[in-house]
């Protein structure tokens, strides 16, 4: 259980949805976040929204309610963890070409995506000897924690993942592929890309590692280590509390 002092709610969210007016969404959203005392980073692009914010329970609820009043975000899902302080210095809403950068034109998770696997069903999938398990995150993320038996592609950023697939995987040999990432967003694009490359069965963990750690008890878990997060906490443990890792000042 989180400590009683953990009064800050950290909310990770994303949704792939067509936002032709995403430029116009930035300032009103930034104003709402600041008024609610929320800090973090949200990315807006024509393909959707992605980011992590932190603040009081009331503040986070206010921002989420504001977003969900837009019919395009009515079913926006998010994942929560608790901390003793806000792990961000300021609030930023950025306009981007992609909400998660793969750099491959035409990949649209809204039209084609892999098969979602619920956290409670993940362990059973991994017991299939024909399943190739791939960690789609960066090498420094994989180094502090991953699922048992997962392949680390050795990438330093998500743009390198398509080249890894082309160089190391063969759709005629690897028929079943399961993938995971921190919150699920990278796997949305990765699974869409692999389907386009001809892989027959592509699975990905719904809600990512964070949702798995939230729903699967440690005694049943096949997760090993801690999960890297892109905020001042650096990592979280299986209870989604701040982990034991830190970053030097130059890496922040």
Looking at this protein, list some descriptive labels.
252 residues; alpha/beta; Alpha-Beta Plaits; Oxidized Rhodanese, domain 1; 2 domains; five-stranded mixed β-sheet; four-stranded parallel β-sheet; globular
How many domain regions? 2
The best one-word shape is globular
- Tell me the fraction of residues in β-strands, as a range: 25-35%
CATH topology of the largest domain: Oxidized Rhodanese, domain 1
Q: What is the chain-wise order of helices and strands?
A: EHEEHEEEHEHEHEHEHEEE
The total of beta strands comes to: 13
Give Rg in angstroms.
Answer: 18 Å
CATH class of the largest domain: Alpha Beta
The helix tally amounts to 7
Q: Would you identify the CATH H-level superfamily of the largest domain?
A: Rhodanese-like domain
> How would a crystallographer describe the biggest sheet?
5 strands, mixed
Tell me which CATH architecture of the largest domain applies here. Answer: 3-Layer(aba) Sandwich
Q: Classify the secondary structure makeup into a structural class.
A: alpha/beta
Low-confidence residue ranges: none
Mean pLDDT: 94
Helix content class: 25-40%
N-to-C terminal Cα separation, in Å? 28 Å
How do the strands of the widest beta sheet line up side by side? 4-1-3-2-5
Offer a quick outline of the entry.
The protein is α/β, with parallel strands linked by helices. The protein has helices at residues 22-35, 57-68, 119-126, 139-142, 161-168, 185-196, 208-215; strands spanning 8-16, 39-45, 48-55, 78-83, 91-95, 115-117, 131-135, 145-147, 176-180, 201-205, 223-225, 227-228, 235-236. The chain has two domains: 8-95, Alpha-Beta Plaits (2-Layer Sandwich); 115-251, Oxidized Rhodanese, domain 1 (3-Layer(aba) Sandwich), CATH 3.40.250.
